[in-house]
């Protein structure tokens, strides 16, 4: 059933919506008898005030909600640093929520955020979020919202992202330039925007170098614990096996590195390894890990700036747009070209 609104109560009791609204707020302007009628009817129909509407009608809370999958992820911790820097300088404080990759937690976090009457939301989708109708409902009710990193193209909101296609294209091209041709791609759930963009960049590089795309070389992770080992085993069992691994996240990078070492696979002697990761210790791994890094802090800063512009200048907004920031390929020992592989 649709939730009961003030208009429903007003219609049923033949009152104006403003009278019902004041009665629910226990205003002195409304007679005790009218208040009693309104309160009893509202209680009978289990009426609950809309927290978004309340926050939009009230004064600014000077608070922004940031909802991310996991703060421990290097990318998100760096993005939050950027968000907080901008928010602090503009007089806002930040409330941080984690979804832990759960759609249900994402819904609960949003509800909690709007109940606290935040002025706007910065959000990166959980890996379980394939339906974004809850975000469309926020937009329809006028809640300022900016998506970053993991976004939804179908939503009419400002979105701030890294150039995932370009980063994956550069990474795959580098591995191909070292002479490798059987490049496995370990990635994350297929319906996430960053997954699709990175897979597209990987495929475009293969096509550019005349290497057929082989879907058997692509494996999708779920952010589960210790999932890289079984995926690596499946790939190594192929004939012929991969001569390189390109992973799409911090977790998969470290899991893949550990799995290959445990199985006695020489990196980069037998296989090259390269990953999307914002880990600041990639150069300390054995071997030092080649990476595609994203401008996480800048993404956070830009997302916060755009959200605050929405909040403070709603009627002068230039409308939704997608802002794409470049990634950086850093080549280290793990993807070093080997003389025997170079044609």
UniProtKB/TrEMBL annotation:
Name the UniProt record assigns to this protein: LacI family transcriptional regulator
The HTH lacI-type domain, residue ranges: 4-58
Entry keyword set: DNA-binding, Transcription, Transcription regulation
InterPro entries: HTH_LacI, Lambda_DNA-bd_dom_sf, Peripla_BP/Lac1_sug-bd_dom, Peripla_BP_I, RNA_pol_sigma_54
One function term, GO molecular function aspect: sigma factor activity
Domain of life: Bacteria
CDD domains to which the protein is assigned, alphabetical: HTH_LacI, PBP1_LacI_sugar_binding-like
Organism: Hymenobacter sedentarius
Pfam families, per the entry: LacI, Peripla_BP_1
Coiled coil: none
Keyword check for Transcription: yes
Keyword DNA-binding among record annotations: yes
